[in-house]
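> call design_seq(struct)
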């Protein structure tokens, strides 16, 4: 059964959660297909950025509770595989953007937080609903807590209350909240910008966002200066500077092209 669909056009792969019957719940089959789709995007040299989207009115309802109940007595619960999914998104060497046109709960918020950029509708709703089920948002904390303001995290983790897209943007869960009719335009504006970055530079910039500083400022500056010089000396860096001086697109910028689906 196809639970994840992919379409690639002009350097952007859109990975769509396609299980609307159960509100795109994070079942084991869906997560395995999602991992395969992400791996394929990494392997494709023409892909510059990845968008995670959804079919149906719900972005993601969190763990597949029916599967979880059945698995508790027999083996690995879906929440454990979620760790692999979040790590794959967080560590992906290409920018990942979450397109959120509807509600997200629990594990779905982990997906959103793992993405580098997230755009939602103002009316989308969110909740860390775990405590109301007698469990905790443990796995998703790896991606969620680095994004959220601490006071907001405490409030929303402990209450399980629902909040909207505007609040999600205010506390750092998403990058921007827009009106529903402007969602695709906002996503397109971001992807248009992302594909203009050099592939190696994009991966390097993501590493900067994740790195831990050295013990001293001088040691940190020495390491960062060495990184910077390496990029300026690279063939990609030389091409980027030349393209800027010659007022032309760099060689890696994809031209509009046909759409392919997998």
């Amino acid at each position: 059964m196809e639970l994840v669909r992919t379409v690639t056009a002009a350097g952007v792969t859109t990975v769509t959660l396609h299980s609307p019957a159960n509100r795109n719940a994070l079942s084991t089959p869906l997560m395995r297909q999602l991992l395969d789709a992400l791996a394929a995007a990494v392997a494709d040299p023409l892909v510059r950025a990845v968008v995670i989207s959804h079919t149906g009115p719900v972005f993601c309802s969190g763990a597949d509770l029916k599967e979880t109940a059945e698995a508790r007595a027999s083996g690995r619960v879906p929440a454990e595989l979620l760790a692999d999914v979040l790590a794959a998104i967080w560590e992906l060497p290409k920018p990942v953007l979450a397109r959120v046109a509807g509600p997200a709960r629990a594990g779905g918020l982990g997906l959103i937080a793992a993405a580098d950029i997230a755009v939602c509708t103002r009316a989308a709703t969110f909740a860390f609903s775990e405590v109301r089920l007698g469990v905790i948002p443990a796995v998703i904390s790896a991606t969620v807590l680095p994004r959220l303001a601490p006071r907001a995290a405490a409030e929303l983790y402990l209450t399980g209350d629902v909040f909207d897209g505007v609040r999600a943007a205010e506390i750092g869960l998403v990058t921007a909240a827009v009106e529903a009719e402007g969602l695709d335009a906002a996503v397109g504006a971001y992807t248009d910008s992302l594909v203009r970055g050099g592939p190696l530079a994009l991966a390097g910039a993501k590493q900067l966002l994740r790195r831990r500083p050295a013990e001293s400022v001088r040691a940190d500056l020495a390491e960062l200066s060495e990184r910077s010089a390496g990029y300026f000396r690279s063939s990609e860096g030389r091409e980027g500077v030349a393209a800027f001086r010659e007022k032309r697109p760099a060689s890696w910028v994809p031209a509009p092209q046909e759409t392919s689906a997998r």
